[in-house]
């Protein structure tokens, strides 16, 4: 069982409470208009084993508060997702796990694994570009937060609230090749504005936001 991953980073502080490991899956069949992660849409063969991912995460797992899995669409690789989560929980059962999905809970509820404690909190439903954007941890207000475990309730119930100014942050991360990544949930138009400002100042800047279709 191999996974197709886009990237992993630590620490991520904008996708759930505390210092978190961020894992982005590669491949998404939902393809929301205005998605800021269009680079994660393309499917490719899985090329990394869950054991190898956990080995790479091990030093971070020891010091993280939780793990956030996003994408891409994690449930488009559901079997591999659950294999990875089993290993993460076996390594550190106290790490709270948040998974983002563009599918609704009615569809995801068919997975028995949602009742086994592997996922503490789910944020479901697709990004809707024209919806309001007032809720913590969500890109559009139609998205729903579901606490599935006691740990999820303890950590994430307080995230069921409106955005505050303190929430309007992005993490900045640097790869070895000098690539700069931003993680978090930008406000609408922020990425376009940032790219324009960087280009004005002589930098190379690409955004991965999906264009408006109509
Ligand atoms: S927002 Fe999520 S579900 Fe929607 S297209 Fe982007 S990666 Fe896929």
Secondary-structure map with pairings?
Blueprint: E1 5-12, E2 20-25, H1 50-63, E3 66-70, H2 78-91, E4 96-100, H3 105-108, E5 121-124, E6 144-147, H4 150-156, E7 170-174, E8 180-184, H5 190-200
Parallel strand pairs: 2-3, 3-4, 4-5
Antiparallel strand pairs: 1-2, 5-6, 7-8
Helix pairs in contact: 1-2
Residues 28, 30-32, 35, 37, 40, 71-73, 102, 126-127 line the site of iron/sulfur cluster.
What do you see in this structure?
By secondary structure, the chain is α/β, with parallel strands linked by helices. It has one domain: TIM Barrel (Alpha-Beta Barrel). The chain has 5 helices and 8 strands; from the N terminus they run ββαβαβαββαββα. The protein has helices at about 50-65, 80-90, 105-110, 150-155, 190-200; strands at about 5-10, 20-25, 65-70, 95-100, 120-125, 145, 170-175, 180-185. The strands form 2 sheets. A 6-stranded mixed β-sheet has the order 1-2-3-4-5-6. α3 (about 105-110) links the parallel β4 and β5. α1 (about 50-65) crosses α2 (about 80-90). The relative contact order is 0.17. Iron/sulfur cluster binds near residues 73 and 102.
Give keywords:
single chain, 214 residues, alpha/beta, TIM Barrel, 6-stranded mixed β-sheet, two-stranded antiparallel sheet, 23% helix, 20% strand, globular, binds iron/sulfur cluster
